[in-house]
Amino acid sequence: TYYVSTTGTNNAACGSSTSPCATAQYVLDNKVSAGDTIIINPGTYSGSMTFSTSNHHDITITTTDSIVPI
To answer: What is the reported pTM?
Structure first.
């Protein structure tokens, strides 16, 4: 499981709940593998996410607040 937050930083050590990454795209490009989960904390994010089903299958992307749309 990897965490993303508007206050996070994209680096090799990011991804935990206490040290989240800044973008889901960074997690997709550098961290995630099949079966992993990306949890996006509430906030306003800009940009988009691009992923390939051949490289990123069986990945769950969700939020810490089930009411917030992704």
So the answer is: 0.86
In angstroms, the Cα distances linking 18 to 3, 4, 34 are 9, 10, 23
Name residue 33's amino acid. Answer: S
Tokens coding 56: 């990123």
| Nearest C-alpha neighbor of 2 from the set 40, 29, 34 | 40
For 69, list phi and psi in degrees, rounded to 5.
-75, 150
Determine contact, residues 19/6, Cβ cutoff 8 Å. Answer: no
pLDDT, one tens digit per residue, over 27-60 is 999 999 889 999 999 999 888 888 777 667 788 8
Closest by CA position to 21, among listed 38, 45, 5: 5
